[in-house]
Amino acid sequence: MNLIASLAVGLLFACGVRMVLERELVRVACGTVLITNSSVLLILAGSFPERGEALSVEQGWPVTDPVLQSLALTAIVIGFAVSALLLTLVHRTQRAHGSLRTDRLVEAELKRVHAAEKGEGR
Amino acid sequence: MISFVPPLSRLLLWPSLIIALSLWMKGGASVGGGFPAGALAGLAVLLQYVTAGRDQARRFVAVRYAAPLAGVGLLLVVGTAFLPVVAGYAPMSLFPRPDQPEIGVGGLHLHTALIFEGGLMLIVFGLVVTVIDRFALRTGGEEEESGP
Amino acid sequence: MPILLPILLALACAPLAYVAGRWRTGAAAWMGALGSLAALGALAWEWTLGPGRLVLPWAPSWGLSLEFTRDGLSGLYSAMALGVGALVVLYSRAYMPHHLHEEGRPARDEVRFQGLILAFMAAMVLLVTVDDLLLLFVALDLTTIISYLLIGFDREDPESRAAALLSLVLTGATSVVFFAGAMTLGLHYGTFSLPLVIERAAHDPASTGALVCLAVGALGKSAQVPFHFWLPRAMAAPTPVSSYLHSAAMVAAGVFLLQRLYPLFAPATGVRDGLLAIGFVSMGMGSLMALVADPFKRVLAYSTIAQYGYALVLVALGSEGAPLYVAIHAPCKAALFLTAGAVTQVTGKKKLSEVGGLRHSLPVLAGASAVAAAGLSALPLTAGFFKDEVFFHALAQRGPAFMAAGLVGAGLTLAYTLRLWWGLFGGPRRDVPAAPRLLVAPVAVLAGTILLGGVLPGLLVAPARAAAAAMRGEPSTLELAYHLDARAENLLAVGAWVLGALLFATRRAWTPALSRVLEGTSRFGPERGYRLLLHLLDRLSTWLHEKEVRDLRDRVASVMVPTGLLGLAVLGVTPLRDRFKVGTVGWADVTLVMALAFASAAALATLRAKGHLRLVLLISCVGFSLAMVFAFAAAPDVALTSVLVETTFTLLFAGLLALLPPDRLQHAQEEAQKPRGRDRLAAGVAGASAFLLSWSALSHLQADRVGARTVELAKAAHSPNVVAAVLTDFRGLDTVGEMTVVVAALLGVTSLLRLKGRR
After folding, report:
1. pLDDT digits (tens, 9 = 90+) for C220-279
2. Could you read off the pLDDT of C85-112 as tens digits, one per residue?
3. Does the structure show a pLDDT above 60 at C426?
4. Total count of domains within chain A
5. Residue A12 sits in a domain of what CATH number?
6. Residue C554 domain-assigned?
7. Strand C64-70 relative to strand C52-59: parallel, antiparallel, unpaired?
8. Position B4 pLDDT exceeds 60
């Protein structure tokens, strides 16, 4: 079970990194979502071996670790908030630069930097 | 063709909100709590945006003032966490304290954790609704500017 | 807590002045001056209460506390900062409108300027009142930062920006060195409280390294060789800044530090000899440069370097007169700076060669500045006489060589002061419009103070003795009086006057040669090294920037890959036996495994997804499969939240796709399908590292966990839902922090997508 869970974590993470390294912003956002998912899975995977009832339990029953659950909950909510922010950022970048491609953004940035340097030099 | 979706979604709004409230109230005792409650309430409003449009959805006060509601939620959260400090307790002390008797009305237990969870709910609700609202405004409203 | 009263009043000045300035621009200066005078009054009242200390515990478990002291040193320096501060703020009321008009800036910026001056004053009062190494550093950096803003106040002017940066870099870097010294001392003695450190240092002297670090911080602040070159450049600032920061406040801070920490330096004769040498070099260098400099503010700047060289010599000799010297020098130099500013405003000129003969048009200013100049060059009947008396007294005890050096220094001082005053006011008559009264009044007040101190030296004795006692930790027997006999001090003073007068009289003979020599040597000074260093750093940063920014993917990969390798390295160096356990898979786990497999398959499919909508659906597939995993793992709260969040997120993502223009999406889609080999490699390394790390972590779960304990405690916390109990009660502060993150994200969203955006 450990092996399977960690394989899934590794796979999700690898896919996430692969997407983050893409050239296009929507995919980059998707990649971060995947990475978030993999970390939530890792947190909760700690409770897989002894999972049982989650809620109010009688004495003697196995218990899913509530601390891990609440950590996972926290991670999900923060992940959601950050993803929402990321989506707005994608939208805003697109509106500002008219492109979804990171290399175009970089070109624009370099152009601005050079222009600024020229302005300083004058 | 008259779609059955808009009336259905309008029908669904209040039940979803009530379920969200119940998720909040019962969070201390069974599955639920502030996060899912806020997310569910946000989802109910999102449905209104999708089916009825921004103007219809903004008839509700809670939707128009979603971002300030999140501020209120943060105040509730921080207040519950740190007001006990004023009274000489450790931060994040909830009442009734473990050694005090519970106060209950019927099946409902009154606990300051409820206020805390309410704050969480308002914050999550505020975030979801604000993002939706801003997105909806952009899709519905202005023309796309051309990039440089 | 009366000790805090002057500090609090001084801190209140800037906000009060700002509020007053919002009401009416001119009110800010009067409000600020009133506030500083109130603080001065509070200080005088405290003076009657005698010395005292105040300790506010801050983090007692770490031995940190906020400590303040009221002794002679803090009283003397606070009075200096507050008194000169009040006058300078009033002066700026008359000076700044003209200056701002010339710079083409709105008149309301005057309030900003006065607010900054007052803030600097508060920082200075704080610096001299704290009695704790860490707070000392904090206050020191506070003065550095505000001085940056003040020197660079004319932000449109590149020269003034560069000067501000230079002073920030130099004083900032040296104050970091000071911090290193303070930390060394604090860790060595186990406390940051200054009296305790000094007490423990009495048995166990401080290390030379720490003392050198402290001294470097002080030298940087006081513009002593080799850190002196920031001061002349800083003259690009508006004149009120120069007259405050570079006479009574910022440069005084360095020498003040040495005086405050003097008991630590007392046993270290080696360090003190070094300081002595630096003091004499600064003295000579500053005086010579002041003799040839043409812009009159620069003359004063070099004179400041020289005068603080005197003060440094006095500290290094352990003289009782060191605090008195700084305190008397401050009003003289401030008055001369203010005079320079007034002359520039009236004539529009900044160089000695361009002005002259103003004594007929500006009689009051000429008279007042003559008194200040006499004070600076230590003529009798001014307070300045006593600053040289204590100086000569300290030198006379060390021998003839020191006396000769002192005589030459004092002679040079008289020569350049005469040159400055004569250059401004002497020579053929020139008529200019009268200066505004508010420009002249502060100079007159300062001159009056200097005269009062000179005529009634008894007034100076009590504060000077108290400050000397605070510095040296023993009662002082300092005497200030005129003696009409042939003692060494008097002979030296007379000799200095003769020398100065001679130099002034023959100035046309030696000035060209001297300026050529100094110009030649300045080519190889530390300033050149600084410029070279800055240039090299600039090149390096440009190179790095170009390299890094060229491709964003490389930037991400350059974080991800080393992190992954680091994780693998961690696994590599730990023994592998029993590191990985495969774990058992029972029948009950089949559903879980299936859900995991589904999630993994969906994740893999996202890589090949064509079209954005498909991509989003696959992402949500991953999310829902994981929600299923959570449900099977008996975590209903997580599963419920996950489902709801995932639904919302999918809809939002779809909304985003609707927002983006379709042709651009299409375009991006076509471009994106060409992955690079090294991206695959990076993803592989990161994934493998994540896999191995999580496997190792999951194989070593603690058997006895916190979770079991929370289950027991949840009942007591009146919350049958253990997860809710953990979230709201046991780890409640975490949740508060989390909510702050969510609200921050909300604020980000609202500010990025404003309802009525400008764009």
Report:
1. 999 888 888 888 888 888 889 988 988 888 899 999 999 999 999 988 889 999 999 999
2. 999 999 999 999 888 888 888 888 889 9
3. yes
4. 1
5. 1.10.287.3510
6. no
7. antiparallel
8. yes
Which residues 48-87 in chain A show a CB within 8 A of chain C?
Answer: 48-49, 51-57, 63-70, 72-74, 76-78, 80-85, 87
C residues 628-657 lying closer than 8 A (beta carbon) to A: 629-630, 633-638, 641-642, 645, 648-649, 652-653, 656-657
Residues 6+ apart with CB under 8 A from C536: none
pLDDT at C510 over 80: yes
What are the tokens at A104? 């175009």
Is C517 inside a domain boundary?
no
Contact C311, C351 (CB under 8 A): no
pLDDT confidence bin for C60, thresholds 50/70/90: confident
Q: What is the pLDDT of residues C515-539, one digit of tens each?
A: 888 877 776 667 777 778 878 887 8
Indicate whether C659 and C711 sit together in one domain: no
For residue B103, give the 3-state DSSP assignment: strand
Q: Is A113 on the interface with C (CB under 8 A)?
A: yes
pLDDT at C444: 93
R_g of chain A, CA atoms, integer Å: 21
Percent of residues in chain B assigned helix, strand, coil, to nearest 5: 65, 5, 30
- What is the complex's ipTM, to 2 decimals? 0.89
- The alpha-carbon gap from A55 to the nearest alpha carbon of chain B, in Å, equals 7
3-state SS, residue C636: helix
For the whole prediction, is pTM greater than 0.80?
Answer: no
Q: Mark which of C452, C470, C505 sits at the end of a domain.
A: C505
Q: Is C520 on the interface with B (CB under 8 A)?
A: no
Is C315 within a domain? Answer: yes
For C267-319, give the secondary structure using H, E and C: CCHHHHHHHHHHHHHHHHHHHHHHHHCCEHHHHHHHHHHHHHHHHHHHHHHCC
Tens digit of each residue's pLDDT (9 = 90 or more) over A28-63: 889 999 999 999 999 988 888 776 665 555 555 666
- Final residue before a domain boundary, out of C470, C505, C540: C505
Establish if C104 belongs to a structural domain.
Answer: yes
Sole residue written with tokens 């590794």: A10
User: Please, what is the end-to-end C-alpha distance for chain C in angstroms?
Assistant: 53
Task: Report the 10 Å Cβ neighbour count for B25.
Answer: 17
- Is residue C127 predicted with pLDDT exceeding 80? yes
Contact C329, C387 (CB under 8 A): yes
Q: What domain range includes position C752?
A: 705-759
| For chain B, domain boundaries | 5-140
Does the beta carbon of C590 lie under 8 angstroms from any beta carbon of chain A?
no
